[in-house]
Design brief:
This protein is α/β, with parallel strands linked by helices. It has helices at 4-10, 33-47, 79-96, 118-128, 151-158, 174-180, 186-199, 217-230, 262-278, 295-302, 342-350, 364-379, 391-402, 423-427, and strands at residues 49-56, 58-59, 71-72, 102-110, 134-144, 162-170, 203-210, 234-239, 282-284, 288-290, 306-308, 311-313, 320-323, 328-330, 334-338, 356-361, 381-383, 406-408, 412-415. A hairpin with a 2-residue loop joins strand 11 and strand 12 (311-313). The relative contact order is 0.16.
């Protein structure tokens, strides 16, 4: 049974574990560019398939809940030079990758990809798809702002293979929308959703956020009720990550007294989960829900769902190449992140240099922990051999078991129903970088 004391105990700062080690704990001094090139070439030689994440950072206005790397501008003349720089970066990677590489997955994120005109989106995708063939069962997806997503944009991307679009809804309550500076009506979201379905998109996703300023149980209930009227195929139901100390973050636009408490946030999650499950959605991993017909539901039930910097994914390859300012790449045993400033990014790639800011080469111990954390985040289960985890980790796991969050044996753990909303906390005992380190100014709270 969840109690106020339990919520208080586990509402601590912790990673969302889209990688291990997490970015603040990378060791860039050990990263070598030639090692990175070799790593992605070798990984792709053995697996063939790759995923691409393309970061399109521009937004016309600042949403104060957002902690993403973005550029706020109304200057659409920036579109083409940025896309040309992305294509220059991709050309450099295409020269590194084996000739028989196959593109299995593409995701356009941001920022707001719907900031870009349909002509420039076509220019981008024509350039991306010119080097390698596309897998038969590929998954191409993109993020749209319901306010400025057009039929022409949706159709342009559909024509080159996109079948999933994700809309940022967040909340339908006007006082919440005004606080986060993201005002959009239900009718706007309904129109965007119907446009995608009319064109032929097979998966429409909505992003909802709980824990936003001025949210109440009633406003969350209203938001979920309206969402269910549109029946998105997939849902992300995120806990708001309050990290106002991050440079360039707009999260200081409201008083922290206007934010719900950890106990209130937990009640929002419980309410939303109950309503979604009663409507036929299944909770998958952390933060995600899907209907049985959705591809994410199917891989989750097969036990093959994966997690990386794009979130949860259906593809099985280990090579993720991130293109664009601030984008992160992953070869399975190495990470690399691009510079974050748009102008610096464009200058580097246009002069023929990979725009990498920093990276990390994983040790064998880190790869072991990475697999454990991935299994917990994706499958709610992890196992190991006797002697492979430390006494300190064992002690922390025993405490989680006493609190009813996991079932524990000497060589494995299974997340309980109670523990499902504490996946981040369950991963943390395996994270050697958190031992003796304060993480308050690195990560958001886990509840």
């Amino acid at each position: 049974m969840i109690t106020a004391d339990l919520i208080e105990k586990y509402n601590v700062a912790g990673p969302r574990y889209t990688s291990y080690p997490t970015v603040p704990h990378w060791q860039p001094e050990k990263f070598q560019l030639n090692d990175w090139k070799t790593s992605i070439r070798q990984r792709t030689s053995s697996e063939k398939g790759i995923s691409l994440y393309i970061h399109l950072p521009f937004c016309e206005s600042l949403c104060t809940f957002c902690a993403c790397h973005k550029r706020i501008t109304k200057n659409h003349a920036m579109e083409r030079p940025y896309i040309d720089a992305v294509l220059n970066e991709w050309r450099m990677y295409a020269n590194i990758l084996p000739a028989d590489t196959v593109i299995e997955e593409i995701h356009l994120g941001g920022g707001s990809p719907s900031f870009f005109s349909e002509e420039n989106l076509k220019h981008l995708m024509d350039g991306i798809l010119r080097y390698f063939p596309v897998a038969e069962n590929h998954e191409f997806s993109w993020e749209g702002n319901p306010v400025n997503t057009t039929f022409a944009q949706l159709k342009t991307l559909y024509d080159v293979g996109f079948r999933r679009v994700s809309y940022g809804v967040q909340d339908y309550d006007m006082s919440v929308q005004q606080a986060i500076r993201r005002e959009q009506s239900f009718e706007t979201v309904e129109t965007a959703t119907q446009m995608a379905r009319t064109i032929g998109y097979t998966s429409v996703s909505h992003d909802l956020v709980f824990g936003l300023p001025f949210q109440t149980v009633e406003s969350v209930k209203n938001t979920v009720e309206k969402t269910l009227k549109l029946a998105p195929d997939r849902l992300a139901f995120y806990s708001y990550a309050h990290v106002p100390w991050l440079k360039g973050n707009g999260q200081r636009g409201y008083d922290e007294a206007n934010l719900p408490t950890g106990h209130e946030k937990r009640s929002f999650y419980d309410l939303g989960k109950k309503m979604l499950e009663e409507a036929g959605y299944a909770e998958l991993g952390m933060d995600h829900f899907a209907l049985p017909e959705d591809s994410l539901f199917k891989v989750a039930k097969e036990g093959t769902m994966r997690r990386n910097f794009m979130g949860y994914t259906t593809t099985q390859n280990n090579t993720l190449i991130g293109l664009g300012a601030s984008a992160i790449s992953d070869s399975g045993d190495m990470y690399a992140q691009n510079v974050k400033n748009v102008e610096e990014y464009q200058m580097l790639v246009n002069s023929g240099n990979l725009p990498i800011l920093k990276g990390h080469k994983s040790t064998e111990e880190e790869l072991f922990v990475r697999q454990i954390i991935s299994d917990i985040m994706c499958n709610g289960f992890a196992e190991w051999q006797l002697g492979e985890i430390s006494d300190l980790t064992e002690n922390q796991l025993e405490e989680l078991a006493l609190d009813g969050l996991i079932e524990l044996t000497d060589t494995n753990l299974k997340v309980t129903e109670l523990g499902h909303s504490y996946l981040r906390n369950i991963c943390m005992p395996f994270d050697e970088y958190l031992i003796g380190n304060k993480s308050e100014n690195m990560f958001s709270k886990t509840v």
